[in-house]
Amino acid sequence: MKVLVIEDTQELATNLVRFLSLKGIQADVSFDGRDGLHKAATKYYDAIILDINLPEIDGLEVCKRLREKEKSVPIIMLTSRSGKDDVIQGLEAGADDYLVKPFDYDILVARLEALTRRGLKSKSTTILTAGNCHIDLERIEVMKGHDKIHLSTLEFDLLKYFAQNKGRVISRQELYEKVWGEFDGDFMFSKTVDVYIGYLRKKLGRELIETKKGHGYIVN
Question: Domain residues for 204?
């Protein structure tokens, strides 16, 4: 599991990162809301531990902006505010859970694991993976980390075929036959496949699809 800790009290953040490491959880840390928002929006995390009282941008605003960006990452809010209205504000901003300082580290880890486990269970069996991409076959959607990626119909079908055949080198001819549904022996099919591989790499990252020279392509 990889989490982001956004907490401006450096001693607490340092101790928390150290404890998470002992539990086998990798953690990045940000000490203000602006940096935390940037990291959360541009990197993949399984969960975010978010303080409310932050410099630059407060935690409630960070949470709201992430949800506006359609970031579905689980968020646990940490705060010294224990009033009912404060709890409601945090949850309405999009937080999944709420812990009041001081808190027990073991309880925090248990809640992190419960949130991430719940997220995995809620995923449909019609979801395939390719690298750090998730392909939802029912909703015809692709997520890279927590970002929705817009693909054309052919791009989606091509990525789906790769995901269904992970770890296997697939020739251009096979891709053309299975995705485009035809093959007439014209050498131009090879160019067509290469062009669409280029489209996917541009949208999803060059590292996703590896070229096996003289053989085809592979996704792991």
Answer: 127-218
